[in-house]
Amino acid sequence: MESSSSLQFFVALSLAMGVAYLLLVMVVILLFSWWVMPCLAHRKLKANGFSGPKPSFPLGNLNDMKKLKMTTNISSSSSSSSLIISNDIHSTHFRTLLAGKNCTVRNVGPDFRSILYRKVFVYWLGTEPFLYIAEPEFLKKMSAEIRGKSWGKPNVFKHDREPMFGQGLLMVEGEDWVRHRHVITPAFSPANLKAMGSLMVDSAKNMLDRWTGLINSGQPEIDAEREIIKDRRRNNRQDKLRSKLLKRKKSARKIKRDANHALQNQPPRRVPFGKFLNPKQNLKAKTLGKEVDELLRSIITERREKPRTGNKPEQDLLGLLLADNTVDGRKKRALTTKELVDECKTFFFGGHETTALALTWTLLLLGLHPEWQEELREEIKHVVGDGEIVDATMLVGLKKMEWVMNEVLRLYPPAPNVQRQARQDIQVDNLVIPNGTNMWIDVVSMHHDENLWGKDVNEFKPERFKDNIHGGCNHKMGFLPFGFGGRMCVGKNLTNMEYKIVLTLILSRFSFSIP
Ligand code: HEM
């Protein structure tokens, strides 16, 4: 009797000790990843001359940034239209975060003494320090020696972005990035893009037919953002041959819409237990990510199995990727089905939304500037004729449209920042960005910097791109709508073509203003 109760005691004691040990290990791990590691990273940055606003645990500078956003919202609600027309979308963010702050800077070369802490500084997203960069010369020197494959993407974002981009080109690093980029780049060659032109024209015409229908039925106002970004459904149900495909496209759009919402509204993981703050949203993001994977996998498998007509691949992106994936019957640097799924997701989330946003902002700005609508209509008449695009090569002649696109991408860059993580120590003059440093390159700030663009920086002036591909910016790296270096956007030419096709068709059929 006595020996069985002492046995029970020992079992309970060892269980309790086991649990206590596990808890202790967990606490040590958490302390290490939320406190010790970030503090070490911060100390290294400080030792190398970088500093910034004081963070608090566990939110870092998130609270300061939230307060700034609230101030922005209040001022926008009191005079919303003037805020939009001013195009000054940067004035309240980081500039205010640093207003009136002073600091002593050590180890700084003469080049960067004046900009450190104003345009290059450390701030904290939760428990993660980031080096904020809004200075093109610093960026140029920092990236001069780094090749595309040697750049990292912040580990801290990888988990959040997995459902959207998987291990697609945007996220992948090292030799894998080289392999992906080699397979993908040819799909975006001018010859292949040209073949995609008719698909784009058909798709845009379907959308515009719907707009015509809406206007003819007495609805003169169209929510352009909704139409272009969220709800581009084609209304051709009579076409029985296409109805099966359409059904699937509809479900793809629905999944995409829901997924965008769920994935972009995930709770922040940069604060301790952030991922547990909204478990429902987390689960939804995961489920939708899986749904998108399955949908794409089924499309890829079907395409792989479908015999090609006349040995020619289908002329859309996936067709081209599948074709480039096999060379002379042998698989050369082939992407696996999982990798293809991830690439399709990357195009799906990274490619569509960005181009659609650029078009939406363009409609807003052209609505505010009818004189530019007229300029572009004249150019279209001259270059394309009645607006019926029969050959995508015609689009090269639409120079003014290109100025407008660049000016829109400058004022409202759809990719407002670019993130990096150093995978080696990076020397910038006599400063060192330590290996492992997260970097946040603020594209919006550089695009709205009066020192780089002049006093009229916030005005819509497409003519600034007339004789200058950098729009007269003082520095070549001050205009970065498509990123920089080896990791520059692979879809740049596709966007250029799609933008011109859609805008040409819109301007040929409609004139518009802001209600
Ligand atoms: C207005 C339209 C677009 C904008 C503003 C834009 C912007 C960007 C930016 C800034 C980057 C660099 C990201 C970084 O360095 O971390 C990038 C990369 C990328 N973009 Fe785009 N993009 C656009 C359209 C597209 C389209 C249409 C596609 C494909 C269908 C696409 C696919 C990609 C991919 C795959 C990468 C990763 C490239 C690499 O890391 O090698 N983008 N884009």
Written as H for each helix and E for each strand, in order along the chain, the element string is: HHHHEEHHHHHHHHEEHHHEEEEHHH
What's the CATH H-level superfamily name? Cytochrome P450
Shape: globular
Q: How much is the radius of gyration in Å?
A: 26 Å
List keywords for this structure.
single chain; 515 residues; alpha+beta; Cytochrome p450; 4-stranded mixed beta sheet; two-stranded antiparallel ribbon; 18 helices
Secondary-structure map with pairings?
Elements: H1 2-47, H2 62-78, H3 80-86, H4 94-98, E1 120-125, E2 128-133, H5 136-143, H6 155-165, H7 174-184, H8 190-216, H9 224-230, H10 240-264, H11 279-305, H12 317-324, E3 326-327, E4 330-331, H13 337-368, H14 370-383, H15 399-411, E5 417-421, E6 426-428, E7 431-433, E8 438-442, H16 443-447, H17 450-453, H18 492-509
Parallel strand pairs: 2-8
Antiparallel strand pairs: 1-2, 3-4, 5-8, 6-7
Helix pairs in contact: 2-3, 8-18, 9-13, 10-11, 11-13, 13-15, 13-18, 14-15
The structure holds protoporphyrin IX containing FE (HEM).
Notes on the structure:
It is a single chain. With 515 residues, the chain is an alpha+beta fold. It has a single domain (48-214, 222-509), classed as Cytochrome p450 (Orthogonal Bundle), CATH 1.10.630.10. Helix content is 55%, strand content 6%. The chain has helices spanning 2-47, 62-78, 80-86, 94-98, 136-143, 155-165, 174-184, 190-216, 224-230, 240-264, 279-305, 317-324, 337-368, 370-383, 399-411, 443-447, 450-453, 492-509, and strands spanning 120-125, 128-133, 326-327, 330-331, 417-421, 426-428, 431-433, 438-442. It is globular. The chain binds protoporphyrin IX containing FE. Protoporphyrin IX containing FE (HEM) is lined by residues 169-170, 181, 346-347, 350-351, 354-355, 358, 414-415, 418, 481-483, 487, 489-491, 494-495.
